[in-house]
Amino acid sequence: MRSYVYTVKSQQWPLLSPREGAIRVCDSLVNPLGVEAVEFYLTTIDRGEADLLTELARIDLEKFVQIVTYLDLRSSIVQDVRADHQQTALLARLYQYACAYSEITRRYLPDLCERLEPYTTAEVGVWVNRSMYQLRARTPQVPQPVALVDDQVAAALFGRTASMQVYAALQPGGTLHIGLNDITDKLPQKFAWEHVSKQIADLCTKRLLDESSSPQILQERIWETLLYEPSVWFEGTPVGRRFWEEIGFARIQDLENASLDDLLRRVNRLYDDYRGQIPRGVELGRLEPHQRWYYLQSLALRRAYYWLDLLTPLKQQLEAPKADVEDLFGYLHSHDFSTIIHSLSDLVPDILSAYRSIVFKNFSQIGDRFAFLELLNCPMLLEITHDSSQGDFLTLTYVLLPSVDQLSQTPLIYSCPANESIANVSLTKKTLKGTWQQRAIGARFGRTSVSRRIGDLQIVEPNAAIICTRFPSRQPILDQVYQLVGCELQHLLGENLPGWHNLDYAQTNTDSLDEWINRYFALRSTPGRA
């Protein structure tokens, strides 16, 4: 305790400006005593109610992430603050929560602001009433970070019956929180970061990043919908007919010869036909089975229209898929990886191109922190393994080799038994408290040294970057890109944060996707918006 107090007092952190304090905190993280002093100061003196941590997020995102991820930043208002000061402390924490959330998202994630709560490019605030609060856009009518609303307005916002004037003034969006436990127990900047990170994890696991610059992914999505949907039918519906037939094509190959403008018209026409089969004013739960079918398929058609609309500025026609689904899963019967290797040789260039476009389009301000992106022009190994104890799916291990120059073919794609995998090593990862190691089976991302003979080649790399993914799927480019992006984001944002457990499994046709599509078309129809 004396060392903590001595360190804090000697550096006079409480007397410094937020910026000077943030710089001093960064300087103190070079040794264990400094780390302990920072933890003591933030949880005992600062308690997240001052601007220090928010300022740190502004000037050094990496240090901020390390602090809020690896330090136990808990400080209970109820236990640590006098009763007559608790209301003031609560408002101070809400203020810092809103400011930190706004600063992080506007400065470092501007490309995603309309996909993150409260779904706006404006500065972010919060409205609060008793134990209820919600993020909101700061507006000319209510520009302050924390807006106190009365019981009547709060009840109307909770019941979604507030007037248009209230919504225009407050512009709330996203989760409406009931209960203040997170704000009263955690430092608000830590809670803000966890909230942002959880949403980014959701965007990755639900495949909801901005794909408008990636024709490879958009084409996969369109083919998947037109070729394989609908997959179930009812009496009174066009039984057995897929969308590509319903929009007027006799052969699948004719899709490749049609212009995207023609496809847009055909899909929109079928969408209107299906919507015409749904009685107006009837709740979804009261529709007849065939009417409900038309409703659900109209949503699928709207998704196809959305992807076609994004693809049209990039291309004139659909390209045929690079890989056949039957070939991708053929190893289940033959246990022969030669077809997979051939398919991957065609797919990998598109996977890497789509990966680049997704990172640049969604994470332009932090793209330089993606180690995999930085090394993408280096020689690459792509290893295929199958561990039957882990199920039917394969593991792909991408290995980037920054100091290797003897590869004439890159990526060099090969298969090997699971127990001989190049990923069966400990991967190193830098944290605030030093460098630690974890088995690759759980880590999936990291750095390691590699010494491996492949055929006639002896590969030696002291600092290889490794990412492990699950393969295959019916949308292999989309699935691989999201896993590559997500694995590294999970490492960058803090691996002990929740939300990443479904990264391997695409969850595309979700309510979240349909909600975003609704916002997309609403934004596009807004005057002044493209």
Structural class given helices, strands, pairing? alpha+beta
Strand content: 5-15%
- Tell me, briefly, the overall form: flat
Give the oligomer, counting copies of the same chain as homo and different chains as hetero: single chain
Please tell me how large the radius of gyration is: 26 Å
Tally of DSSP helical segments: 23
As laid out across the biggest beta sheet, the strand order is 7-5-6-11-10
Q: What are the low-pLDDT stretches, counting only 5+ consecutive residues below 50? A: none
Provide a descriptive summary of the structure in words.
With 530 residues, the chain is of the alpha+beta class. Helix content is 48%, strand content 14%. The protein has 23 helices and 11 strands. The strands form 3 sheets. Strands 7-5-6-11-10 form a 5-stranded mixed sheet, with helices on one face. Strands 3-1-2-4 form a 4-stranded mixed sheet, with helices on both faces. A two-stranded antiparallel sheet has the order 8-9. A hairpin with a 2-residue loop joins strand 8 and strand 9. Helix 1 (2-11) packs across helix 3, helix 11 (188-205) packs antiparallel against helix 22 and helix 19 (338-362) crosses helix 22 (476-493). It is flat and about 75 Å long.
